[in-house]
Amino acid sequence: HEHRTLRISELENAVFSALDHKLLNVFEKRFTKRYGAVPSHVTTLAYDALSLIVTLVRHYPENPFARQNLLNPNGFLGIGGIFRFTEGGATQRGLNILRVHDGNFDVIKEAPKKFE
User: Which DSSP letter does residue 66 get?
Assistant: First the structure.
């Protein structure tokens, strides 16, 4: 489906970051097939939160929510790509770098698959 952003001429050649749409599209198709509706962006955040809980409980059953487990420098895989938490309480995400060009979003740089 077409984004309204692509029709704004002033945004031609604009560069921005975005979640990995390949992963988002897979989730959206599965969700729509199962529930008969397109998921909102809030749905993806809720799914990531639940997925994080399941991952932590599986890998660290004795104390899944210990600070060192939540601050895993390798991060976690979410619906829109990788993410991790920092000591300061921020969330870092691996994002695509996109550019608006000729009515399309061109991927300038793919989202990383792991944190360095």
Answer: -
